[in-house]
């Protein structure tokens, strides 16, 4: 994950978000972490494109829902997950965990999962370094 983009987003969050709203701050920090991780991975990875689309869609929905009164929405029914022929059910679990995994074949799903895990571990290392530098 690009430390520069993440630290710049953290400084913006620190300037704009009041100290009292802890839930809003944590959501914005999570959004900044995922966005910088996806931008660092680049557009060549399917999971990064899916993650960026999801984050943009959620921010737009949040903006428009705050502009109007909220309507009562019935809860959506979840589809039954059936394993695809010839693939183990573990692949279905991976498809749910990796952003954009629903549209991938098995080989590309494993490749994208490996890259996604690598980016998540680098994100954790960066955040540990940030916390370590702030606390010391």
From TrEMBL:
Subcellular location as annotated: Nucleus
CDD domains reported for this sequence: bHLH_AtIBH1_like (cd11444)
GO (cellular component) term, any one: nucleus
Keyword Nucleus attached: yes
GO BP annotations, alphabetical order: regulation of DNA-templated transcription
GO molecular function: protein dimerization activity; transcription cis-regulatory region binding
Keyword line: Nucleus, Transcription, Transcription regulation
rRNA-binding among keywords: no
Domain IBH1-like N-terminal stretches: 5-58
Highest taxon in the source lineage: Eukaryota
InterPro entries xrefs: bHLH_AtIBH1-like, HLH_DNA-bd_sf, IBH1-like, IBH1_N
Pfam families linked to this entry: IBH1_N (PF26576)
Family designation: Belongs to the bHLH protein family.
Xref: PANTHER family: TRANSCRIPTION FACTOR IBH1, TRANSCRIPTION FACTOR IBH1-LIKE 1
Protein known as: Transcription factor IBH1
Organism: Elaeis guineensis var. tenera (Oil palm)
């Amino acid at each position: 994950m690009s430390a520069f983009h993440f630290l710049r987003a953290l400084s913006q969050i620190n300037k704009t978000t009041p100290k009292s709203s802890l839930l809003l701050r944590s959501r914005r920090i999570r959004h900044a972490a995922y966005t910088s991780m996806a931008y660092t991975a680049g557009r060549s990875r399917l999971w990064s494109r899916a993650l960026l689309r999801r984050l943009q869609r959620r921010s737009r929905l949040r903006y428009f829902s705050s502009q109007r009164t909220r309507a009562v929405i019935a809860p959506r029914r979840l589809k039954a997950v059936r394993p695809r022929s010839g693939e183990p059910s573990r692949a279905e679990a991976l498809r749910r965990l990796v952003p954009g995994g629903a549209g991938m074949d098995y080989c590309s799903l494993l490749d994208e999962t490996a890259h996604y895990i690598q980016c998540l571990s680098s994100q954790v290392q960066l955040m540990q370094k940030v916390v370590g530098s702030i606390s010391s």
